[in-house]
Amino acid sequence: MELPQISFLPVVILFLGLMVTLHLSLKLVSNIKCCSLKRLNQKWEAILPEKKEADRFKEELVTMRGKVDAIDSLLQGRLSWAEKLEDLSESLIPGVWLNKLWLERRIQTVMRKGDDGEEGSTYSHVVRMLHLSGSVIASGGEETAAIGKFIRSLERNNGFFKDFSGIESASIQRSKLKDVEVMNFELICYFK
């Protein structure tokens, strides 16, 4: 079998022409992309100061949002003393009046028992208290009973008692105010 004689020169020229066309096409696409990239870089450089300013505002906004959230959480857990004093006033019973009230914080150290029942480690926590100092006048020696009624009235008043874990009598003392016998008392309300 005889193979026909093919001239390779036109094939080589055609191949080289295709390669040159492909190369020029890729070069043209590359130049277009390069020009596009330069334009985008110029636009980026033009808006970069504005972007930095926007980023700074965004950081300030995040910081302020954190502060606002912290303030909101504090306000939600915060006592309204006006409401607390109104509830305290509503809880007063006839013959009882308050002379003084104050807040106290005390660090209390508690001993933990170990697994074996012996003393273990200690931990400290802050105990917050509201002290109520007052006096009561009641006829027929009912002063102590009036103080007990006042404590029960405080405990039943949900607006007042919701922030406290308990109320205890710290002291009760008899005294005379002019010709009238009064009983002075101090109550301690323990915050939760």
Could you please describe the fold and organization of this structure?
By secondary structure, the protein is α+β, with helices and mostly antiparallel strands. The protein has 2 domains: 7-78; 81-191, 2-Layer Sandwich (Alpha-Beta Plaits), CATH 3.30.70. The chain has helices at 8-77, 81-91, 143-156, 158-161; strands at 96-113, 119-136, 164-177, 180-191.
Write the layout of secondary structure elements.
Layout: H1 8-77, H2 81-91, E1 96-113, E2 119-136, H3 143-156, H4 158-161, E3 164-177, E4 180-191
Antiparallel strand pairs: 1-2, 2-4, 3-4
Largest sheet: 4 strands, antiparallel
Overall CATH class of the largest domain: Alpha Beta
Beta-strand percentage range: 25-35%
Q: Give the beta-strand count.
A: 4
Give the CATH topology of the largest domain.
Alpha-Beta Plaits
- Arithmetic mean pLDDT: 86
Q: Which stretches are poorly predicted, pLDDT < 50 over at least 5 residues?
A: none
> Over all CA atoms, what is the radius of gyration?
43 Å
Taken together, the total number of domains comes to 2
Order of helices and strands: HHEEHHEE
Q: Helical content, roughly? A: 40-55%
The secondary structure category is alpha+beta
Question: Span between N and C termini?
Answer: 109 Å
Task: Provide a concise account of the structure shown.
This protein has helices spanning 8-77, 81-91, 143-156, 158-161; strands spanning 96-113, 119-136, 164-177, 180-191. It is an alpha+beta fold.
Keywords:
192 residues, alpha+beta, Alpha-Beta Plaits, four-stranded antiparallel beta sheet, 4 helices, 52% helix, 32% strand
